[in-house]
Amino acid sequence: MERIDDADLTRITYLSEADGWRQRTGRDDREWNLTSHGTSKAGSYAIFKFNGTYVEVRGMIRPKPHPLTDKNSINTFTLDGREPFVYQPRTFPNRTLYNELLYRSQPLQDTEHTLVMTCTVETGWLWLDYIDYTPSNTSTIAIQPSSEASSRGGTLLSKGAVAAVALGAAIITALVVGGALWCWKRREKRRLKSKSQLDDHVTPFEYPEQSPTSVNQTHLSYFSFASYPSPQGTRAHEKSPRTFWNISPTGSDPRITYTPADAWVVGGVSDEWNSTTRGSKSGRASLSFQFSGKSISVYGTLSGNQSTVNPIDLFVLDGGAPVTFAPGLNGTWLHHQRLYSSPMLKDGPHTLVMNHTVDNSDVFIDYFDITPSDPNATTSQSNPLSTSESGTGTEGLSYGAIAGIAIAISLVLLGCLGLLVWLLRSRRKAVNGTGTADARNRPFLDATAPSMTAARSQNATMPDSDWPRSGSTAGTSGANTQKGPAFRIMNDTGEAGPSVSETPPPYRKHA
Questions:
Q1: Which of 57, 82, 383, 497 could disulfide-pair with 103, CB 3.0 to 4.6 Å?
Q2: Nearest to 375, CA basis, from 243, 246, 240, 236
Q3: What's the pTM?
């Protein structure tokens, strides 16, 4: 591990609006190399750039020079532009504490990183003594203070790369499934078209003109069924529709508490919600808002007053880690700006606290947007995501979770594709097993079908010698005759009726 002293200006750059940094030298041997750098100017910051896999910052906690006016320290440490880590001593000591750990990172990717250390509270001191870091395995690159290039290194694979892989896998699988469905629909369309052409060329069965009078003229044609009406369904409503409540902070809503009351004033212009806002310039101003819901966002107005300094506001949800809002103002009034947005919360009661930390800076609160509670859901206390103690900040889902979601989506889509292929193959086997489309669309059934049986029955044998031979028909004695074809007709209920026959002319002996 390599140590960088606070006095090494080739590695650490100190910046402020009005020379807010001061250096202590040779005063206490408990300071590394008898030096330290400190500032009490809100907005002053220091930059440290390095190539390595780990970094930590050590400093001092000193008593307030002016206990009645000086504030407790609130300092932020931002690594590679991520969510800042907020360091705030719980109690201000009555004596100086040395070698205090102000910040340390998680294991980092072996690449270039940028650490920004900022004093966020006026008269709240930030004292730096030294920085320890684990250098890169290749070489240590000295970063000149004039360099302004920023590094965007990350831990392991970046979230963007993981999301891109997941999205790509989902798109490819969806394209494969969509192509298979399209081919299946096209095949079905061709099959139905072929069936329609066969139907157009089939002539329904008709009885001969000279049918026997005893034959029941049962209507024979294709079986047809009444069309089944599709149910007229309606699209289901969401169980918990997403709606928003717009709450003006200027009214007498008991859920909003402003402290101290004399630090807040009511104002507003027509471009703001309900033409009203609640604003303050005091570094002691704070508000507390109690609500029930699943998320919250705070909107306000960014000041265009050039005589004020940049604001630094801290938002704390349910006692979690503070989230810093520190915009860079450019002299233009901007309305409906989002100052804070929470992650999705457990449905239940929550408390949001905002602290305005910089004197002579403007903060204007316009309205809150809330996703309200589901009236049918069970109320429970939320546990919002908070910044980790290591200082790298909340990064949402872990890489493992994102990869797991991607794999699950791909497996589900592949499963659907496999099911579709199986259904198509089963359908093909069924078609091959029952015959061709021509056989399936004939208007007549096989001889063994129960619908109709046409059989020829012969009670007399054909003569193999001179006429006559024995055999007779009912009601005719001594005459050689042959029975005609017998028909078995199905009635409307599918039952077989009696057989009838047509008696042809008798055989005659030719000379």
A1: 57
A2: 240
A3: 0.33
